[in-house]
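Example record used in the benchmark description.
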Amino acid sequence: MRIDLKEATDQIKDLIVAIALLDEVLVWMESEDLCDADIYKRIDAFLYYQPGEGEWEEVE
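Model output (structure tokens):
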């Protein structure tokens, strides 16, 4: 199996940009007092959940 390093690097860069944008969305949502919104909780859990630090919070 051959891996194209350029393509893999480009995909990693795209992922980093997407994560940075999601983090900016969280900051904006906090400034707008939207911390109780379902989408805020889901993004926060996706970005900051650390395995072994407890259980996932159930979001309805």
